[in-house]
Write a structure and sequence with these properties.
Helix content is about 40%, strand content about 15%. By secondary structure, it is α/β, with parallel strands linked by helices. Pyridoxal-5'-phosphate (PLP) binds near residues 18, 71, 75, 121 and 169.
Length: about 350
């Protein structure tokens, strides 16, 4: 077997929807120690927080409320700050992250909020957030968006699309290490949430006020993740911003999905709903295909894939985000082909 695939820093390549492969420059930015109250960090932190709304063209209308933790903390903070006390939310579910939101919200009769996931990372479904937003606006409903795997790569324009808040995290399309979630909020919507948050740690208004007053999070910040995000954002803009990142992922997804199909795999979502972030494939029912063996064999070749997370079908997932390019996607597919041959799961002939 040839030597296993490695990133530019010698690590295996996670083909997962975050944490994923980070670049050398991002990793190097995360090695130093910083003082969280020190003016140098406070200035860097301010730059990161001001930068995030620009990614979705919201530099005037939006503000960032950071949330220590992962995307799920940011999503829960968004829901408990904006939508827990003021009525009920209708949760649009087409995967496990929609299910998770349903568990966070309790049921009450008058629907005030619609909760939607931009890219449902567990099924690979891309929801038409513009159409959902237009419907919400027409019916006077508020829209909080769950967007960790979309933010930075999939189009969203705050000038055209009405929403209250977008929850995301640093460790997906922004290609940073895990540790920082954030919610980019409409100023007025955030101001109106006064007294509504149902928890202390996840209160976005309190967090934002503290940030404005002191330049810091209320509690210990994930300092290395923030410093590394500062570098990741520099690289993001230097590479051309969200449209270029989106274009690279779309090409990765095209190679991945076409290649997996030629190996006999079926995608779960119909093509019209497929997001260019992650492929969710049905697990082959072939008796020679235990998932763990496929996984281990790919791991030996340097690629870490993901099991499925869906109730509707036995699936496996392969992500195409992170510091990955068409070259890595092609070699991952070669590895999958070798693995299937080794397992004696005959791939179906290419269509
Ligand atoms: C990653 C992700 C989350 C957050 O999950 P964590 O496990 O907390 O990182 C939430 N929603 C979507 C759509 C995601 O892709």
């Amino acid at each position: 077997m040839p030597s296993p695939a490695r990133s530019e820093t010698g690590d295996p390549l996670p083909l997962t929807p975050g944490p994923m492969t980070t670049s050398k420059s991002v990793k190097q930015a995360a090695v130093d120690d910083w003082g969280s109250r020190d003016a140098t960090f406070v200035a860097l932190n301010a730059e990161v927080m001001e930068n995030l709304p620009k990614i979705i063209h919201g530099e005037d209308a939006l503000v960032t409320a950071p949330m220590q933790g992962l995307g799920g903390f940011a999503v829960e903070a968004m829901l408990t700050t904006f939508a827990a006390r003021v009525g009920a939310a209708l949760v649009l579910v087409n995967g496990a992250y929609g299910q998770r939101a349903k568990r966070i919200l309790s049921e009450t009769p008058a629907i005030t909020h619609i909760f939607a996931v931009h890219c449902e990372t567990t099924s690979g479904v891309l929801n038409s957030i513009e159409r959902i937003a237009a419907l919400c606006a027409r019916h006077g409903r508020r829209l909080p968006i769950d967007a960790p795997s979309a933010f930075g790569a999939l189009d969203l324009d705050a000038r055209m699309t009405p929403f209250d808040a977008v929850a995301a995290s640093a460790n997906k399309c922004l290609e940073d290490a895990p540790g920082l979630g954030f919610v980019v909020c409409r100023r007025e919507a955030l101001a109106k949430s006064e007294g509504d948050a149902t928890t202390l740690s996840l209160d976005l208004l309190d967090q934002r006020r503290n940030l404005e007053k002191t330049g810091r999070c209320r509690f210990t910040p994930p300092i290395r993740a923030i410093v590394a995000l500062h570098q990741a954002l520099r690289d993001f803009w230097a590479d051309g911003g969200g449209c270029c990142c989106g274009r690279r992922y779309r090409e990765n997804a095209r190679i991945l999905i076409g290649g997996m199909r030629s190996l006999g795999f079926e995608t779960l979502p119909p093509d019209a709903l497929q997001a260019p972030i992650i492929g969710a494939f049905r697990r082959p029912s072939h008796p020679n295909f235990p998932f763990q063996r496929f996984y281990d064999s790919l791991k030996e070749r340097g690629y870490l894939i993901y099991p499925g997370k869906l109730k509707v079908a036995d699936s496996l997932r392969i992500g195409c985000i992170g510091a990955l390019y068409s070259e890595q996607m092609r070699s991952a597919l070669r590895a999958a082909r070798e693995t299937l041959a080794e397992m004696r799961v005959a791939p179906a002939p290419a269509a």
